[in-house]
């Protein structure tokens, strides 16, 4: 006589479940093109920029010098290893809550022919995702629509909006933000 | 080391500088009819009244630029002078005379002004 067990015979073993979960996060289809992304939070929401547009991730502790006359969307300039880089905030352009001054980190972004620091709330990850995980953006509001190229459903949390770096910096050059 | 002679002064909460060769005269009271306070030209808030007047020359002749605080002549090392980033320069709200920034150890940065882009 076998001892009764409390388990559902169709249930997975713990080891198998963990292995499957780990595989789900690490498996890369070598035949599928992948995109490197920098994932971050902004205004409490999740965003990404293409890794090709992000030249450097800075800890955000640099002194930012306010430039007389700049609009709210330009925080100022930083002195970075012998070069002057502007620092912009995207919240105004994307209609997100304003960030606390100087909080968070900086991404040094090169797009639309210019380079600038972009203030982010927090860095989430730098990762590669398969092209199949990028879904066309749907039901975006008019503010976000020009700047979001795809939505990424990476986990159970809310989708990540992949931003178009050229469109963002192009908008700043055109006087928005 | 290469250097640039700058006249350094204050307006609002900021330090500014003009190339010394562009400043014809420095006085404590204005003597020309054409004058302008730098703080007003740059829309700076909280600026003290002008305490020095720098004589500059534009296409219409001499005029005086009012600045606050002490005025110093500094030979600034050329490698410590930087142009502003393109993203800042293209913004219409930034005065076209604001062209660069200079760093000096232990001091707040100094904004560099192009004298020929200032006019009363």
TrEMBL record, chain A:
Cited Pfam families: CheW
**Classification via SUPFAM superfamilies:** CheW-like
Q: Which SMART domains match?
A: CheW (SM00260)
Please list the residue ranges annotated as the CheW-like domain: 34-174
List each coiled-coil range: none
Record protein name field: Chemotaxis protein CheW
Q: Which domain of life is it from?
A: Bacteria
Q: Which PROSITE patterns match?
A: CHEW
UniProtKB/TrEMBL annotation, chain B:
**Per its UniProt entry, which superkingdom is the organism in?**
Bacteria
**What is the protein named?**
CheW-like domain-containing protein
Q: Which organism is it from?
A: Vreelandella malpeensis
């Amino acid at each position: 006589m076998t001892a009764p067990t409390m388990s559902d015979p169709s249930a997975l073993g713990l080891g198998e479940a963990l292995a499957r979960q780990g595989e789900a996060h690490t498996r890369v289809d070598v035949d599928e093109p992948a995109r490197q992304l920098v994932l971050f939070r902004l205004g409490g929401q999740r965003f990404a920029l293409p890794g090709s547009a992000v030249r450097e991730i800075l800890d955000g502790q640099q002194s930012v010098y306010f430039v007389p006359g700049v609009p709210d969307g330009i925080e100022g300039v930083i002195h970075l290893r012998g070069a002057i880089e502007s620092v912009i905030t995207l919240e105004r352009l994307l209609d997100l809550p304003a960030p606390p001054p100087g909080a968070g980190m900086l991404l040094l972004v090169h797009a639309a022919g210019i380079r600038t620091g972009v203030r982010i709330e927090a860095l989430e990850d730098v990762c590669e995702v398969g092209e199949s995980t990028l879904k066309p953006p749907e039901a975006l509001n008019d503010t976000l629509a020009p700047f979001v190229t795809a939505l990424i459903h990476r986990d159970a949390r809310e989708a990540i909006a992949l931003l178009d770096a050229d469109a963002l910096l192009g908008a700043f050059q055109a006087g928005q933000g | 080391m290469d250097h640039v002679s700058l006249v350094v002064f204050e307006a609002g909460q900021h330090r500014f500088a003009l190339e010394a060769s562009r400043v014809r005269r420095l006085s404590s009271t204005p003597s020309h009819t054409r004058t302008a306070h730098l703080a007003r030209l740059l829309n700076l808030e909280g600026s003290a009244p002008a305490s020095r007047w720098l004589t500059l020359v534009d296409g219409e002749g001499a005029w005086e630029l009012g600045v606050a605080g002490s005025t110093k002549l500094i030979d600034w090392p050329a490698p410590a002078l930087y142009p502003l980033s393109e993203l800042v320069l293209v913004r219409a709200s930034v005065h076209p005379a604001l062209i660069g920034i200079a760093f000096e150890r232990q001091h707040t940065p100094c904004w560099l002004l192009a004298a020929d882009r200032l006019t009363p």
